[in-house]
Design goal:
By secondary structure, this protein is α+β, with helices and mostly antiparallel strands. It has a domain at 45-79: Wheat Germ Agglutinin (Isolectin 2), domain 1. It is 33% helix and 15% strand. The protein has 2 helices and 4 strands, in the order αββββα. It has helices at residues 3-22, 73-78, and strands at 47-49, 56-58, 63-65, 68-70. The strands form 2 sheets. A two-stranded antiparallel sheet has the order 1-2. Strands 3-4 form a two-stranded antiparallel ribbon. A hairpin with a 6-residue loop joins strand 1 (47-49) and strand 2 (56-58). The longest helix is centred in the N-terminal third of the chain and has 20 residues, at 3-22. The N and C termini lie far apart (83 Å). The structure holds zinc ion (ZN). Zinc ion binds next to loops.
Length: 79
């Protein structure tokens, strides 16, 4: 292999290196502060919004009717 080829390969390697470097790196822009949780520890239970009053309550406590969640029977009857 002649020295010229080594130079050419070296240049290609440099160009390739710059292309790799200049390629915008995928950054996790959606950094979420998981530390911003309220005092009460977030339970694993999913929270659902009451269809009537908008109060959030746990799925286990919510009343499901017509694919809508309600926090109480009152809200269920109001709807
Ligand atoms: Zn409600």
């Amino acid at each position: 292999m002649s020295p010229q080829w080594i130079v050419v390969i070296g240049l290609i390697a440099i160009v390739y290196f710059f292309f790799i470097k200049k390629r915008p790196t995928v950054q996790n822009s959606n950094k979420k502060n998981d530390n911003s949780t309220p005092k009460d520890e977030v339970q694993s239970n999913d929270m659902v919004e009451c269809s009537t009053c908008g109060v959030y309550c746990e799925v286990s406590d919510a009343i499901l009717s017509n694919n809508k969640y309600y926090c109480s029977n009152e809200c269920l009857e109001k709807e």
